Amino acid sequence: MALPPVGAQLIVFGGKYDINTQTDVILDSIARAGYAAVEGGARDAALYKQKLDERGLVYGGSHTGLRALQDVTPLVEYLRGVGGSDLCNSGLLRWGDLTAEDYRQAIPLLNEAGRKLRDEGVRFHYHHHDFEFKKVDGGKSGMDLLMEGLDPEAVDFCIDVAWVQKGGEDPAQYLVRHKDRIGYLHFKDFNDAGWIELGQGKVDFAAIMQVLPDITGARWVMIEQDSTAIDPVDSVAISRRYLKDTFGY
Length: 249
Prior knowledge:
By secondary structure, the chain is an alpha/beta fold. It has a single domain, classed as TIM Barrel (Alpha-Beta Barrel), CATH 3.20.20.150. Helices cover 38% and strands 20% of the residues. It has nine helices and twelve strands. The protein has an eight-stranded parallel beta barrel with strand order 1-2-3-4-5-8-9-12, surrounded by four helices. A two-stranded antiparallel sheet has the order 6-7. A two-stranded antiparallel sheet has the order 10-11. A hairpin with a 2-residue loop joins β10 (189-191) and β11 (194-196). The longest helix is centred in the middle third of the chain and has 20 residues, at 100-119.
């Protein structure tokens, strides 16, 4: 079974590089490190697609919030312009101390957006953080409510292995338990100080790599690091090299 291609989420470049004015530097570093794709892009879709093509890269997906999904047309048009067909959503209508009612209000909106996107040929993935693992309805967590309420034909999950662990679950076991609901993956690592390059933190990637062949619906593995203490160009290279050197992936 072929494993999903590996891409880079460009959030790691934020604050140090500008994707709109330093596109070439960013994409050169991604291509040089051996990635197949990117998640996130510059404003000019046509120019960005050209720059991706020149480097043999593809557009793996976009990332948005629930309020932006009230009108999916601009999101779909951008994806078509860059040659992508995946969209991740983070969060509900509000952030913070969520209640069961927050999830019940958001689930129909997510399903509606997912069906509209599906009709446009776009795969829609809910990207969680750690707060969804908090108990909000008796013994049920926010993730439990999302798993129960989201239409699998319209919305699947972008599982972020670091946020799973921060939420109190074992990432490898969680992947296996919900393998039929996963369409997208984020590989991320952390230590006590914060986010860190893959292989240098607490996440057990050896266990994750053992079960990855079972996650047959995953379209992408995106390496995501929200911030880094080093140059992002070096960061993306280190994380990609870790997967290659350690697992031949």
